[in-house]
């Protein structure tokens, strides 16, 4: 049977000195035989671990019950057998329970298998157990245990002293009175509470409550009280990820268990500002650097508690990176040999061992970092002090500025408040302040990690799981490279890379996306070779202070001219003026608390069952009282009730809760717990589960996901880019080029393969690839070093880059170098550098090779004629002339196509082609090099072979084109488009950025989101299942519903851009979604969905429950719409008007003239104002217009010229826009027809896609957006008149 997770408590262990040793010491002390009290050996005295009640112990009670009792989980155990000697000596004068005065007895202490009782006593008393002659203060410290799989267990230990008392005859004295004050001795007991969860403050508070009971009690009650305390903690459930905390009463305190922020983060139940109180921010950065570079780090302090708190805080600071090495914050004096470990580690020991560690351990290792917490200093085994590389400058300066603004003094927060008489009120006030401060610190440290590793994803190849580390290093600032050279080879970074390649939507990803500049987003819209922009060059050659912002999100802006450059002031340009909260104001999410019932007698099965039942009842009331729109809180309650039902043995009820959770918030769905729960089902329970459809589907889904996750773990490696070592056929060549990061597009790589293999066998040898790759990188490096004076920069746009620079040549305008950017050619004159404009690519009229006389020779030259000047520009390029001729013609052709088609990506592709030509010629160095380069002249050849003229109507109506498949290796079909309007006056902190958005569904469940204000890509490739998306619906401002071919409706949050809810009630592919009409302002919002086999469902949007469902008889139901209180359903063979209760009202069949043909309805449009129904068919180039009052036959048929079929129809103002396929200039094209609704005639015929138009949507009647099938894969933006 699988292991079901326990509650808060894993085990409670009591340690101390053996009674016989205490008696011997006490007698020696009374007889004045010892002058100094020695350290005693620590032993395990008690172990308490769940289950505390079992089915067997209450077998008679459980007869007739329909479910299994609590604590029936099977737990493998081993026994700790301890021989107990006669113990005349105990604390407080009372004999320990179960010990008689005779010989010894043997007690079997049941111990969880993961608990190491050999090391635990040492860790509970790391400095040794010291007998005292006077009462000492209670002392707390914290422990962390790590198993071989890296799973951590946490513990809180309290050391408290009790007096040792004996009668003169050696028997026990039963009271507190002693014969003389000098005879009093005190011994310490250690109580260690162990949990799987890092609730340090909460467990410390629990132990404080326990001590209030133990101190006045007799020793005879000691074991029973500890056992009862342990049993109570074992009943406490762990709060789910989210904003629901768990509160319980353990007199005299209220204990709070804070929830985790999300599944990937541990709970934060400690004070994260403690490291800032011990170290200056610069020193903290050094400590963080030592962790990121995986050094051997030793923390030292006189206070054992600070060691673990400091170490755990550091783990939070580097999140989401996870420490992969030994993590032992507390080492006892007997464990110091652990510091000789040959691997990286983070360990801690007492400051008394500083000299010993520094002298002995440092001689064996050369990278030991010693962190003195008490003095706030760092030192190392390096002779010259701490020799760690600096964290990158911009990230460092930003962190230091943020840290300066931290308000870490609680007294300043409460100085205006009066004194509270309730200790729990004071504690709640402090917790609220600490939570706010912890959140601020987490944001600051997360921003540090984001700023360090922000550009890693630019050098990842997701298809082949490759990280191009050399290219990443080369693109770093020289001063930052030592840091990255060390970090890139660490286990911690490798794990981080694996998460990036898995597109993990964690805290790092969310912050990285939310802090991207608009310039960066626009740059991500183009796939062009990376070069420094003029803006970056200007910053590079000015003062260092002005360069601090370079790595803080400022990236290359869009190279295309079709989109207006939005480059403005960069983030954090002046670090001196940064507001501490700028960019970091994440809203303090409201916290809700669930208070547990009062604890029952925890060792009685009947009471424990009643306790669980009471908790389940309270959670049921809480669920019914949650506001319908607060789905995240509802999910937390379902999670918690599912957990309680699980430990209470109500497995089917638990599965029902987890099914509701799966529909409400998949982000916090506990897959491992549910999988273990399913494995623990008895035969009878499994049979019942199979009879309940929803639970049966949940079980199959959980098992499928579990198997898929196991399979994925086997294929999650990260490769570093390496040059090939064998000859490459086309397929291998494509893979290596994509891994290298030179270019992604498969068609371009195919042309490159043709160029490199021209006139020879179709394979590329590894040496040629190496030379090509080296030439490409050297050219790139040369461009990085281009130094243009300010007098030249002022003539260029901020986002222009120099991509090619000729040697020094003679021109018709003097001697200099020809420079090529993505927009123009210009002459960089020699001597005193100056700027002479040659031409912009769009102004070129003719480019040809000529020859210029020089003495008795004729030197090859390039002549460029432009529309803006009469004279021809001539440049004597000598041997470079053929290459420049090809490059300029390709750029000219690309510019012309980009302008004609309003698609800036054509220019980017032309630029890539030109640079590949340069690299091919550079690496081949032969007579066939120029001929090989012509294979890459893609746009120039297209211009010659096929006239690419865009019809005038199309050109006037087309505004812009965008490519949603840019991150992919080949174009993907645009299956569905959805526009959601923006919200004025909405800040990014509360409801997203407030801008309108365009949602685009691509093949295989990929969804791309664009900011519709600038058409920049806001979110790339959110995976929505793995099947085709059929429909999307903007239900409200917070959620978008997505109907999939896999029969699931996915609900995507517009804020987090993740699918955290799923509706799984449909049994076949979801084909249509529609929003219901609200009769009253406060009436529930409803939505409708349909699936291809004919099922229509009515959903309550707030509760996500099915209110009604019915089934229609038809051939593939394709869509559903609501009009005047009835549903209109479009199927292939008919259109049906249905009442909301499912009763068929009217049915419209295919028009008579089409009944005999193999065609079918493709779409319908309801024109409410004119009471008309417009229909279209898949393989017919006409529209049919019907009267809604009498739809027996169409009263109007509108022929669409050169149309072979219609796929979609939308109404925009008084026009009908029709998308389909047809013919233009003798070729099959995607076509859009704009139909006048008054005259029923085609006003416009638009041709802008090379494949069928599959999707249309309107952007507030100002624009229409069209998406095309795979061969085109673009989105066109059209102006509406």
Descriptive notes:
The protein is of the alpha+beta class. It is 30% helix and 27% strand. The chain contains 34 helices and 57 strands. The strands form 14 sheets. Strands 22, 23, 24, 25, 26, 27, 28 and 29 form an eight-stranded antiparallel sheet that branches. Strands 1, 3, 5, 8, 9 and 10 form a six-stranded antiparallel sheet that branches. β18 and β19 (466-467) form a beta hairpin. α26 packs parallel to α30 (905-924). The protein starts with 10 loop residues before the first strand and ends with a strand. Residues 60-109, 170-181, 541-583 and 987-991 have low confidence and may be disordered.
How many DSSP helices?
34
How far apart lie the N and C ends? 68 Å
Q: Which structural class should the secondary elements be placed in?
A: alpha+beta
Shape: flat
Instruction: Bin the strand percentage.
Output: 25-35%
Instruction: Tell me the total number of β-strands.
Output: 57
Mean of residue pLDDT values: 83
Largest sheet: 8 strands, antiparallel
Unreliable sequence segments: 60-109, 170-181, 541-583, 987-991
Radius of gyration: 37 Å
State the helical fraction.
25-40%
